[in-house]
């Protein structure tokens, strides 16, 4: 019997031989590509259940850049399977992230309501800067997070309550306190059950148009050991849009990006993220410096005929967050 030799075609053998790095490069690139694919999948599979996956999910937008680098590296090294995996994961993630930089084109109509959110960083933010911003930008409602009694005193001394005389304040030590300050009369509500950090709510008596329910948001920071489930619970405590269609605004430090499961679920129930609607969804709000990769965790959500018209973030000395200012339109 004649034995038939099965030989690898010369051009295939030559291609394998010419691949840079050999098996070691293939193994390393495959390992990195697999890790990248898992990272890119986190916002989809919704595994942000402990502090490390919460952090990786927060950084998901940066995975698009990493994926593009892996695609180019795979092409240079001629590892086509790695190229395919990285390309599919990158395109899928970019499809999710890119719309945040594109305005939705829906016109805002109705009476203006200017909302400012400031995390005062344990009461260390510069009170004069906050009051100057309220005055120069003609803010109507101010959401304050990490509001200490000392910070309340500093804001009063800087003249805040002369500009915005109405208030629902729940100050506390360190990050515990939160407050709402308004140009218009407030009636305290209980839209949020007791949570780890204060999340007060109030009805804003807008002089023209419909009254607006307002929630100052601040769930627990999810990076400490054992805090991720508390953070998820605090976010889940935020109310769904009103069944009556009453206008509602929720503004503050959500400690969550648009990739985190609980915030996505909340928006999916009928809220509009002001930054995302105006093409500013990738504008970072924390940290104000470069102590960590910047992410967008401060938000203004609206429902019940409230639409964003413009959006701005700016630094406040002494705070680790950037302030978020948006002009909303409340439909009549």
Automatic annotation (TrEMBL):
Residues 116-321 form the Endonuclease/exonuclease/phosphatase domain. One of its GO terms (molecular function) is endonuclease activity. Keywords: Endonuclease, Exonuclease, Hydrolase, Membrane, Nuclease, Transmembrane, Transmembrane helix. Gene3D superfamilies: Endonuclease/exonuclease/phosphatase. It comes from Saccharopolyspora flava. The keyword Transmembrane applies. This is Uncharacterized conserved protein YafD, endonuclease/exonuclease/phosphatase (EEP) superfamily. The chain crosses the membrane at residues 21-42, 54-73, 80-98. The keyword Ribosomal protein does not apply. It comes from the Bacteria.
């Amino acid at each position: 019997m004649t034995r038939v030799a099965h030989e690898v075609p010369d051009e295939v053998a030559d291609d394998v031989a010419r691949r840079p790095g050999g098996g070691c490069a293939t193994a390393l690139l495959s390992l990195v590509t697999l890790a990248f694919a898992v990272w890119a999948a986190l916002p989809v599979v919704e595994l942000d259940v402990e502090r490390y996956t919460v952090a990786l999910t927060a950084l998901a937008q940066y995975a698009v850049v990493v994926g593009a680098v892996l695609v180019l590296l795979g092409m240079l090294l001629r590892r086509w399977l790695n190229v395919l995996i990285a390309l599919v994961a990158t395109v899928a993630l970019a499809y999710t992230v890119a719309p945040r930089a594109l305005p939705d084109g829906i016109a805002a109509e109705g009476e203006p309501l200017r909302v400012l959110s400031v995390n005062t960083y344990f009461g260390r933010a510069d009170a004069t800067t906050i009051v100057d911003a309220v005055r120069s930008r003609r803010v109507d409602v101010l959401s304050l997070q990490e509001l200490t009694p000392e910070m309340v005193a500093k804001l009063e001394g800087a003249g805040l309550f002369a500009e915005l005389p109405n208030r629902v304040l729940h100050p506390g030590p360190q990050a515990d306190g939160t407050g709402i300050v308004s140009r218009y009369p407030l009636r305290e509500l209980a839209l949020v059950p007791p949570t780890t950090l204060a999340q007060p709510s109030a009805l804003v008596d807008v002089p023209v148009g419909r009254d607006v329910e307002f929630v100052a948001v601040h769930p627990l920071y999810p990076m400490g050991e054992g805090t991720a489930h508390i953070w998820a619970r605090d976010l889940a405590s935020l109310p769904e849009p009103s069944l009556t269609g009453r206008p509602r605004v929720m503004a503050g430090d959500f400690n969550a990006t648009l990739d985190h499961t609980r915030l996505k679920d909340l928006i999916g129930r009928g809220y509009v993220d002001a930054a995302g609607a105006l093409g500013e969804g990738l504008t970072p709000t924390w940290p104000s410096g470069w102590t960590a990769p910047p992410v967008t965790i401060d938000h203004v959500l609206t429902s019940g005929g409230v639409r964003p018209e413009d959006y701005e973030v700016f630094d406040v000395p002494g705070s680790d967050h950037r302030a978020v200012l948006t002009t909303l339109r409340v439909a009549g």
